[in-house]
Amino acid sequence: KHPVPKELHLGMFEVGRPLGKGKFGRVYLARERESGFVCALKVLHKDEIRQGRVEKQVAREIEIQSNLRHPNVLRLYGHFQDRKRIILILEYAGKGELFKHLQKENRFPEWKAAHYIAQMASALIYLHRKHVIHRDIKPENILVGLHGELKVSDFGWSVHAPSGRRLTMCGTLDYLPPEMVDQKRSTKPYDEKVDLWALGVLMYEFLVGSAPFEDTPIMTKRRIAKGDMTIPSFVSHEATDLIKKLLVLDSDQRISLEKVRQHPWIITHCENITKQDKS
Ligand SMILES: CS(=O)(=O)NCc1cccc(-c2cn3c(Cl)cnc3c(Nc3ccc(N4CCOCC4)cc3)n2)c1
Q1: Do 145 and 6 contact (CB within 8 A), yes or no?
Q2: Residue 136 designated active-site
Q3: Which listed residue (136, 182, 215, 241) is catalytic?
Q4: Facing residues of 31 across strands?
Q5: Which of 64, 220, 251, 252 could bridge 193 with an S-S bond, Cβ 3.0-4.6 Å?
Q6: What is the per-residue pLDDT for 185?
Q7: Burial profile 158-191: b = 16 or more Cβ within 10 angstroms, e = fewer
Q8: For the range 9-16, what are the long-range contacts, defined as Cβ-Cβ under 8 Å and sequence gap of 24 or more?
Q9: Could you read off the pLDDT of 225-250 as tens digits, one per residue?
Q10: What is the mean pLDDT of the chain?
């Protein structure tokens, strides 16, 4: 067993391999000495946070995520800091980034996509009850637990894989709802219904393997504002029906999360999930 270099020990933790790295820091596998508890440590560098002028956002994201308890929301157990760094103690998601799984499989079979969408609907129902709007639902911000369960993981901090990610990734427009794309038209900046639109984009991407409005940045904005997308014929009628009820330009007309969970497409594929999880 190779000794972990001294400087990597953060007091009570033994720090393991890096899991991912990005703009504001790296994520490491770690184990808490006393208990042997395995977790992930996200190390944020204070000077980079200061440069990025995102101190308030970091505080808010920590505040939000530490108060959340849901099987499909990645836990933030705590955080601590030393002179140079802020370290977040996060739940370890045993199967890594959903984005990687989607990339490898191209697109998911309908039963798997339905299970994932049902879990996302449960997570969003929980978040919206706590008045948290995720605002950034996309495969890159979702991790997979050891038993294949989804974990909404990014409350403001996207961590990028060491390996190449989709170029459009940083600041992709694909998931933006019309009310945020089309400034003049937007009466209210946005409310929790932006997560419903994003859930529709996510469902489309799971089933088709690409986002519904994927195009050049200019064209993507135009197509989102018009809801200009085509659903391939290999997508089932029930799935097509649900996508169309989520990707509705008028946010007030979008299907509710409760109705998503009761939709025939979800029911036929997730007999047990919806009954079990009444949270
Ligand atoms: C190439 S990749 O799949 O490793 N992606 C790199 C990457 C980028 C950003 C954040 C993470 C990340 C963050 N995590 C947090 Cl926060 C909690 N658990 C994880 C967490 N867990 C994790 C669990 C397993 C794996 N493996 C599984 C076997 O195949 C190689 C990847 C990776 C990450 N990963 C990983």
Answers
A1: no
A2: yes
A3: 136
A4: 14, 38
A5: 251
A6: 56
A7: bbbbeeebeeebeebbbbbbbbbbbeeeeeeebe
A8: 10/41, 10/82, 10/87, 13/39, 13/41, 15/41
A9: 999 999 999 999 999 999 999 999 99
A10: 86
Q: What does the pLDDT look like over 22-32, one tens digit per residue?
A: 666 799 999 99
Helical segments of the chain, H only: 46-51, 55-66, 98-105, 110-129, 178-181, 193-208, 217-226, 237-246, 257-261, 264-269, 271-276
Written as six digits, the tokens of 221 are: 């904005």
| Cβ 90 under 6 angstroms from ligand 1 | yes
Name 164's Cβ contacts closer than 8 Å, sequence gap at least 6.
none
Q: Convert the pLDDT of each residue in 107-144 to its tens digit.
A: 999 999 999 999 999 999 999 898 888 778 899 889 99
Cα–Cα dist 157/123, whole Å: 18
The amino acid at residue 278 is K
Quote the ipTM score.
0.91
CB atoms within 10 A of CB 256: 14
0.90 exceeded by pTM: no
| CA-proximal residue: ligand 1, atom 33 (nearest) | 96
Q: What is the dihedral of CA 12, 18, 23, 25, to 10 degrees?
A: 10
| 43 Cβ inside 6 Å of ligand 1 | no
With a 6 Å cutoff on the Cβ, whether 169 touches ligand 1 is: no
Q: Please report, as a single letter, which amino acid is at residue 97.
A: E
Q: Which of 94, 60, 66 is nearest to 79 (CA)?
A: 66
